[in-house]
Amino acid sequence: MKVHLKQIPAAGLHLEGEEACAIPQLEAEGIRCAGLLHYKIDIGVSSGALWANGSLSQPVELRCVSCLEKFAHKIEVQAFAVHTELRGPENVDLTPFIREDLLLNLPAHPHCDRDSGRICKAKYIEVPEQDAKRESDWSALDKLKLKR
Predict the structure, then answer these.
(1) CA-CA distance, 50 to 42, in Å (whole number)?
(2) pTM value?
(3) Over residues 50-74, mean pLDDT
(4) Rounded-to-integer distance, Cα 32 and Cα 24, Å
(5) Contact 53, 23 (CB under 8 A)
């Protein structure tokens, strides 16, 4: 997302919309974008620096670490904030800042039942009870005769 500095009025600018996924390089890691990035950002220029704050939302498809099934997840960044010095060009690219916040809000160990909308199959595997009684593992020691 590139912002042209001359288009930002003194009172600031509100941007709201959708863009292509900012983290496509994560497909090799099993993380796939499942839709467009939604953003609501306020941008302004003050004292030779650009500031931006707002919210981001990126739907992704992750793989559960327990059952290894794919599931939908939405990365929510409610407090997106940037403050960067202006250096030279008329355009400022916010994509690296957006990418960083999305990556920081990815779950480290994704579970498909995290949002309570699904039950993970791996956590509810039924093990049949064994009816046969086993002999104690200590029984071999009971047969041991020691000299005193």
Answers:
(1) 11
(2) 0.71
(3) 89
(4) 7
(5) no
